[in-house]
Amino acid sequence: MKTTVSVRQVSKSFGKKTVLSEVNLTMEQGQIYGLIGPSGAGKTTLIKMMVGMDVPDEGAVNILGTKMPNLTMLQHIGYMAQSDALYGELTGEENLKFFASMFKMGKAEQKQRISYAADLVNLSQELGKKVSAYSGGMKRRLSLAIALVHDPSVLILDEPTVGIDPELRQSIWQELTRLRSSERKTIVVTTHVMDEAEKCDRLAMVRNGRILTEGTPEQLKRQYNAAGLEDVFLQAGGVRP
Amino acid sequence: MRIRALVRRICEQLLRDKRTLALLFLAPLLVLSLVNYLFQHTGDGSDVKIGAVNVDAQIVESMKNQGMDVVFYAQADKDTLEKDKLDAVIVMKDRAIHLILKNTDPSVSKAIRMKISQTAASLAEAALQKGKAAAAHVAMTTDYVYGGADTNYFDTLSPILIGFFVFFFVFLIAGIGLLRERTSGTLERLMATPVRPGEVIAGYLAGYGMFAFLQTVIVVLFGTLVLGIPLAGSIWYVLLVNLLLAFVALSLGILLSAFAASEFQMVQFIPIVIIPQVFFAGIFPLDGMASWVQAVARIMPLYYAADALKSVMYKGLGFGEIAVDVGVLLLFAALFIGLNLRRLAFLYRK
Questions:
Q1: Fewer CB atoms < 10 Å away: N or C end of chain A?
Q2: Edge to edge, what strands does the sheet with A66-67 contain?
Q3: Residues A204-228: tens digit of each pLDDT
Q4: d(CA A42, CA A47)
């Protein structure tokens, strides 16, 4: 298996507050990697380092063998932020087109990728509407489409299914699974939802800037002798259920 | 390619925002018209009381026709003018006109002087056609009770106003534009693509610069063609100065938006950044003021723009006379753009 994302001995503090300390993670091609943990655990900081918007105080984040931050590497990374960062005055298509223009892509390829990405998240019929008229779920889907528009080999999704109804959540996860299996993409997901964590190939539990435990969902459950991931999470955090 | 996409996006956004477009293009025209009306209408040269000493009957006739109230004197000077509350006194001697203007309102003085000299000139021309070459020469001298010939306060105000509109609206709209981009997370999202800080800034400069340019063209054309604001020099220099000023306003707005957490806080920069510049831009003559006041004026971009605009629009001077102002504006723009680049790189490209 080819390592696509590697986090080595990463520490980071803002002022006196330590946000990450000695984090080590390895993610491979064709893998959905879940980062779970409570709010403020350091997941978003970790993700920002992967997209090169933050730098570790110590250690290094490498993506596809290149040390981040690296501008050209961003061509191969698809990022979906926690909040929907969209231009409300523009239509869905204009948003997609704008972000697609930031990547190296031919005109024909751009057109084809835009219709592919819109189709994927079921937004083809709504592309002509202004984003300000979109529902919360539609905005989330458009954000996902934007993350996919340049066909990145590494997808970094910060809580992708927040505010999305169960039906659509399922279809997004189906798509993520397909992208992993047939397109061999590396997908990094943060989530609060335990049944989503169950669908990841590997999980890392983050708390107070540390990796509490890491492994496949099955391994984790066996290790803590727990029935569900929720119990694993509580036990690993030192809380008895 | 990326810059073009950025410019295109800014245009699409602005063109959909009809209120902001109206603020950008119509508000300056409205304010300019109102200010123009206020200043123009205080004196149009009619409705004035003028003392006449030995004035040619034809000239008196013409003055009366223009709505002036003419009072005849055997002799009159500045004291007579004060005592009888006259606006001006005309003394004619050997076909030479001596005009004494009270000049409490420079715009009235200007109107009177223009009308008298026009009347005298047309009479002289008529005389010339009749073959009385000797009688044709009409000399005119002017004396002022208050102030002097160069008290042309209001004409110098309109170039400052035009510069002010460009600065104010571009500062506000670009500042809030980037602020919203920051608070909504789109800036961060944008910086997660391979775009360079320079490309973002260039896109912003070009995108908003286009609207600033359009605004300047509309304001200048409206001001000169509709409102009759004097434009003695080249309109291209006016556009050049305003475009540079727009770049300064744009980059300063973007820079200061970093220190605002909301649109409301952005608006709070108006009394700090905009209003003092207006006062120091030449609305009040700074020549006689303390040197520290003049020094303060020299750190304000609008001071240089106003100086250049006054030179071109009012005095009709050429590029040589505004080169220093243009250079300083370029330096301001370069400084703010440089600071913006550093900030963007510091925040998102570590």
A1: N
A2: A17-28, A3-14, A58-63, A66-67
A3: 988 888 888 899 988 888 888 888 8
A4: 9
A227 touches chain B (CB under 8 A): no
**Which position has the token pair 């220099």?**
B237
Is B82 in contact with B57 (CB distance < 8 Å)?
Answer: no
Q: Which amino acid, residue B41?
A: H
Structure tokens at A175: 């798509």
CB B107 within 8 A of CB B40: yes
Cα A170 versus chain centre, distance: 16
* Arithmetic mean of pLDDT, B253-266: 91
One-letter-per-residue 3-state SS of A56-109: CCEEEEEECCEECCCCHHHHHEEEECCCCCCCCCCEHHHHHHHHHHCCCCCHHH
B14: nearest Cα among B181, B162, B155: B181
pLDDT category of residue B140 using cuts at 50, 70 and 90: confident
Q: Do B348 and A89 touch (CB under 8 A)?
A: no
Other beta carbons within 10 Å of B123: 17
pLDDT at A240: 47
CB pairs under 8 A between A and B: 75
SS3 content of chain A, % helix, strand, coil (to 5): 40, 30, 35
Taking CB atoms and an 8 Å limit, are A53 and B350 in contact across chains? yes
Residue with the bigger pLDDT between B85 and A13: it is: A13
Of the candidates B16, B28, B7, B15, the one whose C-alpha atom is nearest the C-alpha of residue B215 is B28
Closest C-alpha to A73, from B192, B231, B134, B109: B192
Question: In this structure, are residues B92 and B53 in contact, taking their beta carbons and an 8 Å threshold?
Answer: yes
| Global pTM value | 0.77
Cα B14 to chain center, whole Å?
26
For A144-156, letters b (16+ CB in 10 Å) and e give bbbbbbbbbbbbb
Say how many C-beta atoms besides its own lie within 10 A of residue B11's C-beta.
15
- Chain B residue numbers touching A51 (CB-CB < 8 A): 192
E strand intervals along chain A: 3-14, 17-28, 31-36, 58-63, 66-67, 77-80, 154-158, 186-191, 202-207, 210-215
Contact criterion met (CB < 8 Å) for B192 and A69: no
Residue B122 backbone zone (phi > 0: left; psi -120 to 50: alpha; other: beta): alpha
DSSP H or E stretch at residue B50: strand B49-53
A19: phi then psi, degrees, rounded to nearest 5: -95, -40
Is A75 in CB contact (< 8 Å) with chain B? yes
Comparing CB atoms, the residue among B5, B12, B192 nearest residue A74 is B192
Q: How far apart are CA A63 and CA A33, in angstroms?
A: 14
C-alpha to C-alpha distances, B268 to B250, B262, B333, nearest whole angstrom: 17, 10, 22
Whether residue B190 and residue A87 make contact (CB cut-off 8 A), yes or no, is: no
Tell me the residues of B at the A interface, defined by beta carbons under 8 Å apart. 1-2, 4-5, 8-9, 12-13, 16-17, 184-186, 188-196, 348-350
C-alpha count within 13 angstroms, C-beta hemisphere, residue B216: 27
Bond before A38 cis per omega within 30 degrees: no
Whether the Cβ atoms of residue B198 and residue B341 lie closer than 8 Å to each other: yes
Could you report the per-residue pLDDT of B277-291, keeping only the tens digit for each?
A: 988 887 776 767 788
